[in-house]
Amino acid sequence: MLSREQIIDTAVELLDAGGEGALTVRAMTERLATGSGAIYYHVGTRDELLDTATETVVTAALATKPGGASVTPEEEIRAVALALFDAIAEHQWLATRLTLQIIRNPIGPVTVGIFERIGRQVGALGVPQAAWFDATATLVHYILGAVSQNARVDGDTSDVEAGVDREEFLGAASRAWQELDPDDYPFMHAIVDQMREHDDREQFLTGIALVLDGITNLR
Amino acid sequence: MLSREQIIDTAVELLDAGGEGALTVRAMTERLATGSGAIYYHVGTRDELLDTATETVVTAALATKPGGASVTPEEEIRAVALALFDAIAEHQWLATRLTLQIIRNPIGPVTVGIFERIGRQVGALGVPQAAWFDATATLVHYILGAVSQNARVDGDTSDVEAGVDREEFLGAASRAWQELDPDDYPFMHAIVDQMREHDDREQFLTGIALVLDGITNLR
DNA sequence: ACCTGAACACCGTTCAAGT
DNA sequence: ACCTGAACACCGTTCAAGT
Predict the structure, then answer these.
(1) Which SUPFAM superfamilies match (chains A, B) (predicted)?
(2) How is domain A55-216 classified at the architecture level of CATH?
(3) With 80 as the cut, is the pLDDT of residue A159 above it?
(4) Does the predicted model carry a pTM greater than 0.90?
(5) Quick check: A172 pLDDT over 70?
(6) Cβ atoms of residues B59 and B21 within 8 Å
(7) Are B123 and B215 in contact (CB under 8 A)?
(8) What is the maximum alpha-carbon separation in chain A?
């Protein structure tokens, strides 16, 4: 018998392999050797399936160990942030789907789960309660913004090739920046070297440290 | 004769009125009283039209006055951030399309335009040059993350009704949060009142101030 | 309760043909 | 150069019918 879980797993596979465009009802029925009605019976609309897949993947990412007793709030926040960073690296379709879910269903399990997880640590950081909501919202907005914008479309290359792709990409980008009119784009010219040598993950951690610095100043 | 500009304007109208799903080639040909080939001739694919529309709207938003001579870097950054905030409030489809464009074309005019505009002010803030790229990336990630996640889907109501909608929405959200298990979601329960009374725009400015605080600490 | 699959209305895109 | 619009392959969704 066809199960809801099977359908969701298959959907994630199709999404990972070919992006949102690859998730068609017909592709699903072929892989699952079933009729289209069966899918609607178990998970509803294509759009609902997309939401469910998002929920499943994000929940799994957040389920990483709650951290030992001796973990600082900063470390815990970094762990959650990196879990989301890695989830989007693995499932690039999440970048837009996560945003869509937060906009359309801000009281759903995805939004609430992330907020609760980050918010507790903001409290543990010693931020006065009156600032909890603002501080947590800022952190969550930053984390989700950064991970979404860092999702790279690089096809299904091996790990070794991915390194090459990355260098090629950075080279192309820095060349494009070099070609900009220096009078119109002085800043881009000034940072072209930093851009070529930067690491997304490191920059993400630097950004978190920076926001955390602003947050702890609220004490 | 049909012009590229006409096509883009019509596309933005359809997108504003009904979201991404409302932008169909057939709806375009009806409004413009033309054949489908004409659209492909002028702007290419539907996807390319979507990118062009995004570019047009973002460029217009960034074109707000460059600021007088006596404007501080902080004020300038706030002005750019609020311009993007308002652009997404007016064109909600931007939330996902902007992310998509940044991912797929990080060297395009949209990404470069935002980066240059914000980056200059980061320099003017006195941040050491070695930290320019990291600081600017953090700020841009935060701004785009926050504005995207604040895009509300509220249909085509008048300004007065929008206020009612907002209260209804906040009420529904706070009620949903109240119903969460307090043992599993202590943080959500603690901030439910702040959430009901907060203002998105104010919270956004608070977030920017917080990130700016972290950035100026780099001096 | 669970599943099939034909049928339907609607897509984006192409391209020979016209002016 | 600019535009038409029929034709094509492909969508998501429904629903009577089966087990």
Answers:
(1) Homeodomain-like, Tetracyclin repressor-like, C-terminal domain
(2) Orthogonal Bundle (1.10)
(3) no
(4) yes
(5) yes
(6) no
(7) no
(8) 66
Closest CA relative to residue B88, chosen from B136, B9, B16: B16
Q: Per-residue b/e over A11-43, b at no fewer than 16 CB within 10 Å?
A: bbebbbeeeeeebeeeebeeebebeeebbeebb
Which residues does chain B have within 8 Å of residue A143's beta carbon, measured at their own beta carbons?
A: 145
Return the pLDDT at A70: 76
Amino acid at A149: Q
**Where does chain A hold its CATH 1.10.10.60 domain(s)?**
1-44
Q: Is B45 on the interface with A (CB under 8 A)?
A: no
For residue B31, say whether its CB is under 7 Å from any atom of strand C: no
**pLDDT(B92) > 80:** yes
Residue B78 has a pLDDT of: 97
A218 contacts B120? CB cut-off 8 A: no
Say yes or no: B132 contacts chain A, CB-CB below 8 A.
Answer: yes
- Chain B residues within an 8 Å CB radius of A179: none
B33 touches strand D (CB under 7 A): yes
Looking at every residue in chain B, the average pLDDT score rounds to 94
pLDDT of B62 strictly over 70: yes
CB of A37 within 7 Å of some strand D atom: yes
**For A113, nearest residue in chain B (alpha carbons):** B185
pLDDT score at A67: 64
**What's the mean pLDDT in B114-129?**
97
Q: How far is CA B101 from CA B43, B97, B164, in A?
A: 17, 6, 34
Question: Going by C-beta distance under 8 Å and a sequence separation of 6 or more, which residues neighbour residue B134?
Answer: A194, A198, A203, A206, A207, A210
Q: Which pLDDT value is given to residue A154?
A: 57
Distance from CA of A107 to the nearest CA of B (A): 6
Q: Is the domain defined by B1-44 classed in CATH 1.10.10.60?
A: yes
pLDDT digits (tens, 9 = 90+) for A98-129: 999 999 999 999 999 999 999 999 999 999 99
What is the DSSP code (8-state) at residue B45?
Answer: S
